[in-house]
Specification:
By secondary structure, the chain is an alpha/beta fold. The protein has helices spanning about 25-35, 70, 90-95, 95-105, 115-120; strands spanning about 15-20, 55, 75, 85-90, 120-125, 140. α1 packs across α4. The chain is globular and about 55 Å long. The chain starts with 14 loop residues before the first strand and ends with a strand.
């Protein structure tokens, strides 16, 4: 019995919508990372990018449990000496909730060329409206 190995041209990509309203940010990000990699498919092949497109809506209504709003910090560097910037998640969720969700999802995807390609299929919106109705996305419940 041989193992099935998918080829890049044989991958069919679907579109999924995940509603993050009232759900923990990390749980939504973990499910989105699984869909982006394609690990939910029976024909998953580690060396082939066989993931789907993911649309995450209502990111502004995602919740962070415990004291993460005050204790979790996003660090970034401007490139100048001594210019390390830090932002608490309370202000990040208030000002840019899409960025918080995007950071969580990209942190759960491999840091290689396939991971960067998978991140291009992620669309994140703070509200309930998205621009991808023509692709007929399916609601994904977990």
């Amino acid at each position: 019995m041989s193992t099935y190995m998918a080829k890049a041209g044989q991958v069919d990509r679907k579109w999924y919508v995940i509603d993050a309203a009232g759900k923990p940010l990390g749980r939504v990000a973990a499910q989105a990372a699984v869909l982006l990699r394609g690990k939910h498919k029976p024909e998953f092949t580690p060396h082939v990018d066989c993931g789907d497109h993911v649309i995450i809506i209502n990111c502004a209504e995602a919740v962070l449990t415990g004291n993460k709003l005050d204790q979790k910090v996003w660090y970034r560097h401007t490139g100048w000496i001594g210019h390390m910037k830090e932002t608490k998640y309370r202000t990040l969720m208030a000002q840019r909730p899409e960025k918080a969700m995007e950071l969580a999802v990209t942190g759960m995807i491999p840091k290689n060329t396939m991971g960067r390609q998978a991140c291009t299929r992620l669309r994140v919106y703070a509200g309930a409206q998205h621009d991808h109705a023509a692709q007929k996305p399916e609601n994904y419940e977990f």
